[in-house]
Amino acid sequence: MIKILIVDDHHVVRRGLAFFLKTQKDMDIIGEAKNGKEAVEMASALDPDIILMDLMMPEMDGIEATRRIKAVHPGIQIMMLTSFSDQDQVVPAIEAGAGGYQLKDIEPDELVKSIRKLLSGENSLHPKATNHLLTRITKKEPPNKIHELTRRESEVLKELTKGKSNKDIASSLYITEKTVKTHISNIFSKLEVTDRTQAALYAVKNQLAWKDE
């Protein structure tokens, strides 16, 4: 079962999400929090697989809550589920550690797919969020460290930018999932990124081609 913690300051939103997600046979709503402070406390107490995090909330917003949760529980996946798509919200949320960013007008079935994609290691970003991140990366002009990757690490990164899971990457490159995890860890370290989304965006910015040879 996918253990889900719902965080939103509106009771109706929390109840609506919980009602729908409970209809999924592989999902279990283990808690609801009405602000970021409660989210931090419940994350430690309940150890969810994924947190659906609102952005603007009283006492502690979603960005600060995400930063604190990821600092202590890096394995918990956090998806921002908000009405805001401005760059000023998207970029700080991803930098804080959110692995997904979706808008509240998302279709219910698409939300379910996004949750499963995030937990399987695939990208789960709304197109507007992706565009904002690319714009921010372009402005920052980070040093190109792609050349520091080995040939195999470059191949793994190319597959990662396609949104493939570790299992799919292993199958494509004829290596084990354990080896894929090792390569991805090395990629994160060399590129100085913290998750798959940032690595993929880094590859795009620095023109690492991912088309099949």
Automatic annotation (TrEMBL):
GO terms for cellular component: cytoplasm. Keywords: DNA-binding, Phosphoprotein, Transcription, Transcription regulation. Residues 3-119 form the Response regulatory domain. CDD domains: LuxR_C_like, REC_NarL-like. Coiled coil: none annotated. GO terms for molecular function: DNA binding. The keyword Transport does not apply. Residues 142-207 form the HTH luxR-type domain. Transmembrane segments: none annotated. GO terms for biological process: phosphorelay signal transduction system; regulation of DNA-templated transcription. It is found in: Cytoplasm. It comes from the Bacteria. PANTHER family: TWO-COMPONENT RESPONSE REGULATOR. This is LuxR family transcriptional regulator. It comes from Rossellomorea marisflavi.
